[in-house]
Write a structure and sequence with these properties.
This protein has 236 residues and is α+β, with helices and mostly antiparallel strands. The protein has a single domain, classed as 2,3-Dihydroxybiphenyl 1,2-Dioxygenase, domain 1. The chain contains 4 helices and 13 strands.
């Protein structure tokens, strides 16, 4: 039985490549894992940021293009990207964001303390404390993502019954699903309505889930076609 282990990567759209590198490399301390190009627009870079090894579940990638118009975060999109940080490191990150001139809000969800803020293009980010004691304050990888679905019940059905994620309950207007991977294993669905999302700079382009290998990837595609969904062709 096919079962997703969680998120492989999340891809965003921004305007400026160098500004993005400064924010995610210099401020958040992520590694620029790879620089390649956009499949459809070869004049546009595709930048990958992750942990030191570039492992699946740690990767946030970007299409930086100066000419694209500003987008609007809303329904039909991935709303927020959450990074996992070790327990008791929130104070360190609060100070770091303050010193970098980044506005933030402190909060909690499902019992985990978090900081919410935006990057220089307006992408919604969260740093979420995880119950792991590490001798570091560095970002561990992706904690998960929040979907701003126009049809939360249908999105929940796909996560639970197609991708076999476990429903972990609801909290303050969010419904949570968990996969079995060590990082990037949480997807929340925002249950309250939002404005309609408009794709552009400052919004997320897509979320990619993990497959174990190329064989399983082809199995996933056939399975999704059988379920009446419309997966893209497989690319290297």
């Amino acid at each position: 039985m096919l079962k997703s282990e969680g998120i492989h990567h999340i891809t965003a759209m921004v305007n400026n490549a160098q500004r993005t590198i400064h924010f995610y490399n210099d401020i958040l301390g992520l590694r620029l894992v790879k620089k390649t190009i956009h499949f459809e627009r070869p004049e546009v870079y595709h930048l990958y940021f992750g942990d030191y090894r570039g492992l699946p579940g740690t990767l946030l990638t970007f299409f930086p293009w100066e000419k694209q118009l500003k987008g609007r975060i809303g329904t039909g999109q991935v709303g927020a990207t959450s990074y996992a940080i070790p327990a008791n490191s929130l104070d360190f990150w609060e100070k770091r964001l303050y010193q970098s001139g980044i506005d933030y809000e402190r909060g909690s969800r499902f019992g985990n303390s978090l900081l919410s803020f935006t990057d220089r293009d307006g992408l919604q980010l969260e740093l979420v404390e995880q119950p792991v004691a590490l001798n570091t304050t560095e970002i561990i990888g992706l904690a998960g993502a929040t979907l701003y679905s126009a049809k939360p019940d249908k999105s929940a059905d796909i996560l639970e019954n197609l991708f076999r994620m476990n429903c972990a309950g609801d909290d303050d207007g969010y419904l949570r699903f968990k996969a079995e991977g060590a990082v990037g294993n949480v997807i929340d669905i925002k249950l309250t309505p939002s404005v309609r999302g408009l794709m552009g700079a400052g919004t997320l382009h897509h979320i990619a889930l993990r497959a174990k290998d190329e064989t399983e990837l082809y199995q996933w595609r056939e399975f999704l076609l059988e379920k009446g969904l419309n997966p893209t062709e497989i690319r290297d």
